[in-house]
């Protein structure tokens, strides 16, 4: 389908930069990333209140998760794009200029939450349950910044609609009508968040602790796997890095859920009392 065949092409003429304060460049990507983190922490606080975990402790945990998530997100991005840093390795710490891997942030944040839980004697599975819905909202808000800056390049659109970035400062693909892939991810995350919140208490009553959060992380990963086919990211053994990470998340969620389900069933069977003898047996 050629650009002239589109029913609608949305032109994005937005400067990805908000302001420069000396050496500090403030970008919309960074602004919405911060808002997303705050929103995710607030959702986590609300959900974990029912587990007896105070808001102060949730925000303390959030700091651990954010720091570990930022480190993981940046390191994975640098590993994927090391050629951009050869000869200028000091740029690795220039987070304000963009360049992070969302999957690196997810896995890093989960490890940060695990470390906090072990340090504070909190059941990590309770944290996971809240992480599923909370992160979905945080990811959705963060994608608003990606829609503005056009950082994640997509393939030409084969749908009746497309998007074109035209701002001189854009990180997008000027002159090309492409899929708004990050916009699709934004919608997917909002759907995951909405369903996760509406079914949270019901699933918590039916599934072992931790499995609810793993379920929604896996659902997010499922959508991300298929949407990544619309990206122009480099391939590794036929798939994009984000797709391999999505499969890793789905596999990890499946294995851990199976282990916890088996553990709960075994615990129930061990605590069951033998039936009293009947009159005939007596």
List the helices and strands in order. EEEHHHHEHHHEEH
Structural class based on helices, strands and sheet pairing: mainly alpha
Largest sheet: 2 strands, parallel
Distance between the termini: 82 Å
The number of distinct β-strands equals: 6
CA-based gyration radius: 22 Å
Figure out the total of helices: 8
The amount of beta strand, in percent, is: 5-15%
Residues in helix, %: 55-70%
- Identify the overall geometry: globular
Segments where pLDDT lies below 50 for 5+ residues? none
Neighbour order of strands in the largest sheet:
1-4
Please state the average pLDDT score.
85
GO biological process, one term: lipoprotein biosynthetic process
Subcellular location: Cell membrane
GO molecular function, one term: phosphatidylglycerol-prolipoprotein diacylglyceryl transferase activity
Family: Belongs to the Lgt family.
Protein described:
This protein has a two-stranded parallel sheet. The protein has helices at residues 28-48, 55-80, 102-120, 124-149, 181-198, 200-206, 211-227, 241-271, and strands at residues 8-12, 17-21, 24-27, 161-165, 235-236, 239-240. A hairpin with a 2-residue loop joins strand 5 and strand 6. It is mainly alpha-helical and 282 residues long. Helix 1 packs across helix 2 and helix 4 runs antiparallel to helix 5. It has a domain at 7-203.
Quick structural gist:
Helix content is 59%, strand content 8%.
Layout of strands and helices, then pairs:
Elements: E1 8-12, E2 17-21, E3 24-27, H1 28-48, H2 55-80, H3 102-120, H4 124-149, E4 161-165, H5 181-198, H6 200-206, H7 211-227, E5 235-236, E6 239-240, H8 241-271
Parallel strand pairs: 1-4
Antiparallel strand pairs: 2-3, 5-6
Helix pairs in contact: 1-2, 1-4, 2-3, 4-5, 4-7, 5-7, 7-8
